Amino acid sequence: MSQSDNERSYSSAKYRTPDGAPADIVIFTITKQEKRSGKKSLPVRELKVLLIRRKAWPFQGMWALPGGFSKETETMEVTARRELEEETGVRDVHLEYLGVYSAPGRDPRGWIISHAYCALVNEALLAHRQAADDAEEVGLFAIDDALENMELAFDHREIMRDAYSKIREQMLASTIAKQFLPERFTLGELHQVIRTVVPGFEEHNFIRKITSTQSRKGIMEEARDANGEKQTSIEYSQRPAQLYRFTGYEPPLSIYG
Amino acid sequence: MSQSDNERSYSSAKYRTPDGAPADIVIFTITKQEKRSGKKSLPVRELKVLLIRRKAWPFQGMWALPGGFSKETETMEVTARRELEEETGVRDVHLEYLGVYSAPGRDPRGWIISHAYCALVNEALLAHRQAADDAEEVGLFAIDDALENMELAFDHREIMRDAYSKIREQMLASTIAKQFLPERFTLGELHQVIRTVVPGFEEHNFIRKITSTQSRKGIMEEARDANGEKQTSIEYSQRPAQLYRFTGYEPPLSIYG
DNA sequence: TAAATAGTGTCTCTTAGACATTATGGT
DNA sequence: ACCATAATGTCTAAGAGACACTATTTA
Fold first, then answer.
1. Do A16 and B74 make contact, defined as CB atoms within 8 angstroms?
2. DSSP assignment string, B46-107
3. InterPro entries, alphabetically (chains A, B) (predicted)?
4. Protein B205 CA to nucleic acid C15 C1', in Å?
5. Strands, E, within B92-176: which ranges?
6. In this complex, do A21 and B16 lie within 8 Å of one another by their Cβ atoms?
7. Which residues 21-40 of A have a C-beta within 8 angstroms of B?
8. Are A142 and A48 in contact (CB under 8 A)?
9. Rounded CA separation B69/B22 (Å)
10. CA B205 → CA A251, B169, B199, distances in Å?
11. In B, which residues are within 8 Å of A215 by CB distance?
């Protein structure tokens, strides 16, 4: 049997093949809203997702995750990054793969297997874009609102639920908090970001834990200026707070020891 | 614009669509080989992967991961389970999604986006099958051997590498060890299974850690018989060893406290 | 001086980690 | 008696967890 025979016998023409393989992106951001109490205080933070309103069939007029079809010449991740930039203008952000959504009938256009990604975007990057193009209707919605009260296109509610569940887990198990923080931050800010994503996170002695346990010492370090002096910030408090920065180290986690 | 117009305008016919969406499965098992020293001792364990030899183009004659194309009527996970059963006869096993492999050119048959799964299979289930059908040439290979010394079809080396990396992480962060153990096991066995998957895992006081720390108490418990008596085993040692069983509880992991 | 956040002192109990020691029962 | 595995004793240092307390600056 020649190779061309083989090749012909494997031709996909005789099988039903998928009608498309899009990437959909759950874009998370944390908005900051200054309290107007006059006094310095930590801003109110809220976890939000970016949605776009569909302009065409199917689910015309409904809110949906941004995304679009992959091309033969790109990997799925490239597709996700391209769509992310096309639809929101943001690039070079933290993007992670969430999973495949392939339930039959999930898309009325046919057999369409979707790949979901999570993007964690600093509000600053997103706000810049919001003003820039208003050609497409986009919106930022509180995650709870979007999950509970909105009717979403396709299986996007399920995807969002999975994405939310994943970043809650990751928020505690990794240093993704840095995606929502400036390079140098106070422990108060970090604590607040964590609680914004994981409402149940109550750590009384948060500062103590970070600063006094050796096993977590390596994760972040005190920020210092050119002279080696410790840097502090009075952005959110009267008393100057020590600034910290992530080192890049993430400890391995184990349930056995 | 009528819906059929919309529908027509979205027809996938005018776009290039994928030529297939297969699932490939990395089947891990741990083989047990009794030492023939005569004395009772823990068996030698080894982490292995199951591969099949390809019978046709492309990569004819080369070893590859078992797998096959998804149908329009099934989810990817169903595809993976179906292929797993078709090719190895095992069912109802622990299966987890690994990720999508979509690099252009990864499959000479066309634009084929593959979905990788990990299956963790108890040797007993696999051995039963091995004898049953030898129509297809299958083989169990030590993971290091497969990764370092074998030429594999497609991007299957990369998939295997990712799968190995993932189960090493999961072995420490979850209770997947139970997939390789009988329902009741000794701490010696558990320790050995963990070290088989994670060679670097050296926990001197393993028994002590499991039995004396409150935070890990809930993960497993002493096995008891109908009368509530503690059960022990002398399968691997002279001195009877306490049997344990997993409770199903998995503690949340956090780097912050 | 009240408000708001940052950070320390102090105490108790638990855990980590290292090493030595004992236990069990067959060859 | 020796072996391989199982399990405990003992000690020290470190961490967890709770709560009260002090620190810093501005409205």
1. no
2. EEEEEEEE--SSSSTTSEE--EEEPPTTS-HHHHHHHHHHHHH---S-EEEEEEEE--TTSS
3. NUDIX_hydrolase-like_dom_sf, NUDIX_hydrolase_CS, NUDIX_hydrolase_dom, WH-like_DNA-bd_sf, WH_DNA-bd_sf, WHD_NrtR
4. 12
5. 94-101, 114-120, 138-142
6. no
7. 21
8. yes
9. 4
10. 21, 21, 17
11. none
| CA A255/CA A119 separation, integer angstroms | 28
Whole-Å CA distances, B8 to A23, A77, B88: 22, 29, 43
Nearest to B146, CA basis, from B25, B46, B63, B58: B63
Distance in Å, residue B42 CA to nucleotide D4 C1':
9
Q: Which of A16, A73, A253 sits opposite B173 (nearest CB)?
A: A253
**B44 beta partners:** B33
Which residues, other chains included, contact B257 with Cβ-Cβ below 8 Å and sequence gap of 6+? A203, A206, A209
Closest Cα in chain B to A209: B257
CATH topology of domain A22-173: Nucleoside Triphosphate Pyrophosphohydrolase (3.90.79)
| Residue in B74, B84, B88, B67 with CA at minimum distance from that of residue B22 | B67
Instruction: Tell me the C-alpha distance between A20 and A112, whole Å.
Output: 5
Give this prediction's pTM: 0.92
* pLDDT tens track for B71-119: 999 999 999 999 999 888 888 999 999 999 999 999 999 999 999 999 9
Q: Where are the domains of chain A?
A: 22-173, 176-246
Structure tokens at B19: 């030529």
Low-confidence ranges of chain A (pLDDT < 50): 1-9, 131-132, 134
